């Protein structure tokens, strides 16, 4: 447990002894299927990723083990970073579209009816 003034880790990187940088398990704390499934989808779209999957360690724990294996010696952190950025872009697009439609709806509601 993190002490006072000490930040709790959000992401841990676990690598087996002797394994290359292309085969890594990331432990993401305070996350669940919402991030796991969507991030896995974003990462698996790329050809340089051989495997990407996640597991929920236990229903009472709010963390996921997220595994990435890459091809051609590419570090697993690269597809993770790229996937997070792409997922962020998609979420931002959804938010912008939603806010624009809400604004349009409110404008229509304020117009007098004929």
Automatic annotation (TrEMBL):
Tell me where in this chain the DNA-directed RNA polymerase RBP11-like dimerisation domain is found: 23-96
Subcellular locations according to the entry: Nucleus
Example GO BP: transcription elongation by RNA polymerase I
Gene Ontology MF term list? DNA binding; DNA-directed RNA polymerase activity; protein dimerization activity
What Gene3D superfamilies does the annotation carry? RNA polymerase, RBP11-like subunit
Q: Name one GO cellular component term.
A: RNA polymerase III complex
Keywords, comma-separated and alphabetical: DNA-directed RNA polymerase, Nucleus, Transcription
Indicate the family of this protein: Belongs to the archaeal Rpo11/eukaryotic RPB11/RPC19 RNA polymerase subunit family.
Q: What is this protein called?
A: DNA-directed RNA polymerases I and III subunit RPAC2
